[in-house]
Design brief:
The chain has 219 residues and is an alpha+beta fold. It has four helices and eleven strands; from the N terminus they run H-E-E-H-E-E-H-E-E-E-E-E-E-H-E. The chain starts with a helix and ends with a strand.
Length: 219
């Protein structure tokens, strides 16, 4: 009887404790209250050309704001387009003013090149340059058209083959950014295109220009 009384008392006490101490409630995550800073939308390796989808403004704790950050309302997003990443930036990391180099600045083209890469420029026309629908940051294939003479001494044949693939466009003419008016990209026919290539490929391109005509194929 004594054991039964103790057991009933223990059960009642436990029930009282469970009823009195409600389940802990999860605290709602608080959004940082502070200015919005420019951050990377994705990982930006060295040489990345900044486009509209590369960066965005995100709320940041006020006590963590640094002078080198780009702040919403103070930084003009349009001036960021076409700049080049100078050192690697991880996704979600604030972009500092020293991380980007602008067209016209000393060392701009060198910053746009990946490690071990070279810049080489080739002439293009409206036809060979895809009617101006090629912009910095696009990737293209390079085709060579040449005349081939037969062994019988007959009429030469014109032949075209893709000699290089997946080359990155660094600049069209002397511009490294696309011009937009009323939210629409302006299409301009370029006379030259600058490509990012390896040293070996740069040599092949120079030889190919003397052999025949070069044209681009947009990927």
């Amino acid at each position: 009887m004594g054991a039964l009384v103790i057991a009933i008392g223990t059960a009642l006490a436990a029930r009282s404790l469970l009823a009195g101490g409600g389940a802990p409630q999860a605290e709602a995550a608080q959004t940082p209250k502070g200015p919005k800073v420019m951050v990377a939308q994705r990982a930006l390796p060295v040489g990345t050309i900044i486009t509209a989808d590369s960066v965005s403004f995100q709320a940041w704790p006020k006590e963590m704001i640094q002078d080198a950050y780009y702040l919403d309302g103070e930084a003009d997003m349009n001036t960021m387009l076409g700049t080049v990443v100078r050192y690697p930036i991880t996704a979600g990391q604030p972009i500092t003013q020293g991380a980007l180099v602008k067209p016209g600045d000393r060392g701009f083209l060198a910053a746009a090149l990946g490690p071990g890469m070279r810049a080489v420029t080739i002439p293009v026309t409206q036809k060979s340059g895809v009617a101006g629908f090629i912009f910095p940051g696009d990737h293209v294939d390079l085709m060579l058209t040449q005349s081939i003479k037969g062994d019988d001494g007959g009429q030469a044949l014109r032949a075209t083959e893709t000699i290089l693939r997946n080359l990155r466009i660094l600049a069209t003419d002397q511009s490294t950014e696309s011009e937009t008016i009323d939210g629409k990209t302006v299409v301009k026919v370029s006379r030259t295109v600058t490509l990012e290539v390896t040293p070996r490929i740069a040599e092949k391109i120079q030889v190919a220009q003397s052999v025949g005509n070069l044209s681009l194929s947009l990927r």
